[in-house]
Amino acid sequence: MMQVDQTVYTTLKERLKEIFGYNQFRGDQEAIIHSILSGYNTFVIMPTGAGKSLCYQLPAIVSEGTAVVISPLIALMKNQVDQLNAFGINAQFLNSTLSKTEMNRVKRDTLNGTLKLLYIAPESLTKEENLDFLKKANISFVAIDEAHCISEWGHDFRPEYRKIRGIVDNIGNLPVIALTATATPKVQQDIQKNLQMEDAHLYKTSFNRKNLYYEIKPKVDAKKQLIKYVKQHKGKSGIIYCLSRKTVEEIAELLSVNDVKALPYHAGLDPQTRMHNQDAFLNEDVDVVCATIAFGMGIDKPDVRFVIHYDAPKSLEGYYQETGRAGRDGLEGNCVMFYSYDDIQKLEKFNKDKSVTERDNAKHLLGEMVSYANLGVCRRRQLLGYFGEYMEKDCGFCDNCVKPAPTFKVQNEVVLALQTVLQTDQRFDVTHLSDVLTATSNQYVTSYEHNRLDVYGKGREFNETAEFWCSLIKQITIYGYLEKDVDNYGILKLTQRGMNYIEDPYPLTLHKNHDYDHLPTDEDEDKDAAPTSGGAAYDQELLGLLKALRKKVAKEKNLPPYVIFQDPSMEEMATTYPTTREEMAQINGVGLGKVQKFGRPFIELIAKYVEDNDIETAKDVVIKSTVNKSKVKIYIIQQIDRKVDLDEIAESKSLQMEDLMEEIEHICYSGTRLNLDYYINQVMDEDRQDEIFDYFMQAETDNIAVAMEQFGGDDFTEQDLRLMRIKFLSEVAN
Ligand code: ADP
Ligand code: ZN
């Protein structure tokens, strides 16, 4: 049982703030951390970007000794180690790239207990010498990242992952936390079995990535579409996935000649070039990387704004993980796939040389992919359904929701389909069911004697094709009338809702499948634009300056920019204008370590900006109004300095005089001195000015209503009083 400082339970939240700068745990993070700290095996299934890393990083930091983190890729480890070091945490990795000296340092820090996280690949774990030293060390727990690599049913099987259990047992009796972002119920079962942790505390959070916009475009004139899209997202980070190295090179080249900063990435490049191109992307020297799926696992760049699948992916799991790399920081993330059936056929050819099981599995995964593309149902409902999560409503934020496919009504058809599932004993997949319905005789149908069933050929009475029935069955599965069997994934069974439906049917609205063979028209394209999140509330100009500074600092420190500060933190800075270390530490995602390491130049920049632009900030609440308004203020101050008539200023900014007065008062109350004499002298004679001035001098309040009571009868307008109040405040108070 590991040693945990008893106070950690009360202070976890404080440590979260102090180290990582976050005010709150996200989702199940806190419960997960408690679970592993209490010594329970813990299994975490969360989508990319949900914040899995923190679930083992924080407990590792508060526990005595060192946590071992098993991770499949060197790039991934390096990334996390960089990020942790930026937070001021001692984390290191152990792999074959280390020199003797580096290796010794890792071992020394582990044995003396100063190292909090040791990242290691499963290959290195099996090495005798590493095992020996780990046995001597005080290990707090073991974290297994990307745990889906254990399962053959997943999309990224790594045989060496299956040895982990044995090795961990060899090191000692340690609690294990396994984490993954993709697991169908079947893969999940497989992982738990292999790690012998069926008893684990399971935390499965929703897979929904609310900020991602999913869309599929027909792969017609794809290059032109691609360039247009990337240009529309100029200056933003994006990944374009292609199937082959050749296409990767071709597309990278194509983008480059079209003035997009892009580089290729695939396993065929020499390691140096590969590393260079990856770093160029992380460091924002290029905006776009064109890559095979060799790229990305462990690329934790949080501000990727679009992920494009130029070719169709091989599985929905892969697709979900790849698209998951967009918008990890919770901000904008666009996921576009170019789809044509030709691509699917190409992929099928690749599977020819595989073993029978492998081929069947690959074919099944691909079939799910095709369905996803073709169905007119909300993409999010389809994706979540695939991962065993039922969604009651359409999401409203995918192409199928924004631009719905034509619909049709059904009722008797649904009853018939459900009856077919029942009559075939709930043991068959969609293809077989549609064969039975359309009386497509084949060896399976006859060998099960399904040609004798009551429902056999009944589908023909509706004059519908096999394609229609497949689509219908898939749609009613997504809508919860049928469900997939966990052990045998293609098999469909009735749910309670399906049972009820047969008893008491009602009309259902389904969507027609897509036809990807036609060229998108201009009108389609206009409708295609992903809805944007609306006007940003932050100071764009300051954000630009902060980003430029971040890039400079990152260059000096040889770190990716997001390791310094992430976009959401920068946006917050450009909203609340922190000008002290304390205020900076209040920003989400900025812990004390970061303030110390990187804070100063940013604080200085903001302070100067605030001063130059005369922005008001209060202690922790910001009074400052929106960006545009602050620009207007600056404009007004400049114009008054130039002695421009107030009427003219109002007109040039299309303001009512009333509104302009309010702006000027606001400027004045925030402490800026304004000299309006040039204007006031035009509209009031000196005696009247003196009268009002004296009034404000001895009045108990500068309230205008009160002043109006005093002067109202004497032909003074409210505007006169307000102008004089500004003059008074400027001369006396400011
Ligand atoms: P995952 O490993 O699940 O893909 P990460 O661990 O990379 O996700 O986290 C995704 C993003 O969420 C990162 O930018 C991280 O800094 C941020 N994050 C994690 N936990 C929190 C939290 N409690 N509050 C705010 N942001 C968080
Ligand atoms: Zn949707």
From TrEMBL:
Its cofactor is Mg(2+); Zn(2+). It is an enzyme of class 5 (isomerase). Its EC number is 5.6.2.4. Pfam families: DEAD, Helicase_C, HRDC, RecQ-1-like_HTH, RecQ_Zn_bind, RQC. It catalyses: Couples ATP hydrolysis with the unwinding of duplex DNA by translocating in the 3'-5' direction. One of its GO terms (biological process) is DNA recombination. Residues 513-533 are annotated as: Disordered. InterPro entries: DEAD/DEAH_box_helicase_dom (IPR011545), DNA_helicase_ATP-dep_RecQ (IPR004589), DNA_helicase_ATP-dep_RecQ_bac (IPR006293), Helicase_ATP-bd (IPR014001), Helicase_C-like (IPR001650), HRDC-like_sf (IPR010997), HRDC_dom (IPR002121), HRDC_dom_sf (IPR044876). Residues 33-201 form the Helicase ATP-binding domain. One of its GO terms (molecular function) is ATP binding. Keywords: ATP-binding, DNA damage, DNA recombination, DNA repair, DNA-binding, Helicase, Hydrolase, Isomerase, Metal-binding, Nucleotide-binding, Zinc. Residues 222-370 form the Helicase C-terminal domain. GO terms for cellular component: bacterial nucleoid; cytoplasm; replisome. Residues 536-616 form the HRDC domain. Belongs to the helicase family. RecQ subfamily. NCBIfam families: recQ, recQ_fam. This is DNA helicase RecQ. It comes from Spirosoma oryzae.
